[in-house]
Design a protein that fits this description.
Length: about 250
């Protein structure tokens, strides 16, 4: 995502936060399933993004911080010195004050989920568990204190084909979401799109600790039973039940 933005914008720096620790299962068997699922992530990501292992920036433009430190004092002071016009978030921990207050209206997040239907953690994963691939997508929105609740600049769905695995779906979503992000930054900065408030009375917020081996197995069953193929057969009709903000 960063390397794609570098091709379109003057990227002043990157705060790179350590990945959230891998969740452990409640017992050895569940732990085995979760770890195998995580390994599959890495293998498929290499197939899609194998040449994107490093930021295309000088090391002095990268601040590496521990998990949940992206809006800590050190990161805040480092960012403030750069005086960026906008802060762009992707897969970070929750951003808090004083960073949130200082950049109000200029903090833009790419959420890999279609809000307000799926908010919070693993928002690409849960629609596949619930049998709703029409709710897989990306949302570019302004950041507020409430999780994934800020006004929306634009949304997209990845282009799926029969036979796509859950990893194909996830990685395609990253690609289409990054394209959307670049477009939304340009349009928002030029005043050509206005943020649209979300209806938070619908949808659900998922938490990290809800992720489980049981959910993984349910998702796998859905794919085995032709979930993607059934969705594509009635794509237009099913997508209309979950309208999105086009950009």
């Amino acid at each position: 995502m960063v390397n794609r933005l570098i091709g379109h914008f003057d990227v002043l720096g990157v705060v790179s936060e350590t990945k959230r620790p891998l969740q452990s299962g409640r017992n050895p068997e569940e732990d085995k399933i979760i770890k195998a699922y995580d390994r599959e992530w890495e293998e498929k990501e290499r197939a899609y993004f194998g040449n994107e292992t490093e930021f295309r920036l000088a090391e002095n433009k990268i601040l590496r911080v521990d998990y949940q430190s992206a809006s800590g004092k050190g990161a805040f002071e480092w960012i403030k010195k750069l005086t960026p016009q906008y802060l762009i978030l992707f897969s970070s921990s929750v951003i808090k004050d004083p960073l949130l207050a200082l950049y109000h209206g200029r903090l833009i997040n790419m959420h890999l989920g279609l809000t307000p239907y799926y908010r919070g953690s693993a928002a690409t994963f849960w629609p596949l568990v619930m049998g709703e691939p029409e709710c897989v997508g990306a949302t570019v929105h302004l950041v507020v204190k409430q999780v994934d609740a800020g006004s929306v600049l634009g949304q997209s769905r990845p282009r799926l084909v029969p036979g796509d695995s859950h990893r194909d779906v996830s990685n395609k979503n990253v690609i289409s979401g990054t394209d959307l992000l670049s477009r939304c930054i340009t349009l928002y900065a030029s005043g050509k799109i206005a943020p649209q408030r979300q209806d938070l009375s619908v949808g659900r917020v998922f938490k990290h600790d809800e992720f489980s081996a049981e959910a993984i197995m349910k998702m796998r069953e859905n794919f085995s039973s032709g979930m993607i193929e059934n969705y594509l057969k009635y794509k237009g009709e099913r997508d209309r039940k979950f309208p999105i903000v086009e950009a």
